[in-house]
Design brief:
It is built from 12 helices and 12 strands. By secondary structure, it is an alpha/beta fold. An 8-stranded mixed β-sheet has the order 8-7-9-3-10-11-6-12, sandwiched between helices.
Amino acid sequence: MSCMFLVTMVLVSTTLASSSLSVNNSGVVTTSYGGFGRWFDYVVVIMLENHSINYTYGVSVAPNSWNSMSTTCTGNCTYFDSLANQNGLALNYTNLGVTDGSISDYTAMTSGYGSLPSACNDGPTTPGCTPPDIPNIADRLEGKNLSWKAYMEDYPVSSGCYNQFATNYFPNHNPFVYYQDIINNTSRCNRIVNANSQIVSQANCWPTSVQNDDLFLADLTPANAPNYMFLAPNSIDDIHNCNDVSVANAWLQQLVPNILNSPLFQTRRAALFITFDEAGCSGKNQTPCPSAGPQLYTVWASNSTNPAPPTKMGFKSTQSYTHFSALRTVEDNWGFLPFIVSADGSANNMEEFFRTSS
């Protein structure tokens, strides 16, 4: 079924006008104060799978105690809770406007197209699925001389456009292998890379080990980080195959502090965006899930000790947002015009989650 971004933007201000531009080794354009995004200069985007917010945020309960109370999450969600409560939580974020199936959620987030044929959920080479020749976030980034990279957990190759299912790697959670102008360009394909150098053995559900994403974390320095980073966990860490959210809770608890305490997040305006692809749950032969609400756990976060953290702390919003809003936020941050399609162009951006730049 279903499946998960960092951001920059170009605003000409008096501060920017008086700052000198330079290009670092990763091809990132920066100024003397670290970048030129409206709210942030780097963004990490993470999408998890198939769980409503009432499964991931609230009171933790054991699987045999699950019920339909909207304030009760399914399993251990203690880190989900603390991350949301300390940072910015969107309480009314959904995948409204996207057709069923993971890949359309991923392409909605990265191109504004949220209605790929259902056959595409079985991979981009499946009969009935023709990878679309459509503009996407990579085009917009490169058009502004900004850099991007997509990190895939358990990727069967070190880099490139791998479009087949493999152990715990699902290509329908990797939108970049669906875009014609990426899969037909070797240089662009090589920006899709493995997130982890070693694969630890995992069970489908808790208890289990989680991957450490060391290759992704190693890039989180001002010298190496692309402006836009998309991280897709494997099908265990993203809880695609398990109703119990405890695995993703453990994965985030290990990963997110390493992201927020990285040299990049400590010294630059870097933002972390975490959401889910769609509501419901898809685990097979498990205790049934409680009734699913349409809302998806969605958080913006940054390093609170950074001299200029881009996101607000302890902030909650009840405004309505969608995957198109997340894309619109990236576009508005970097001044990408025109918008890719009408879906992102008409969506609300998530400006309220960010501090005003000085």
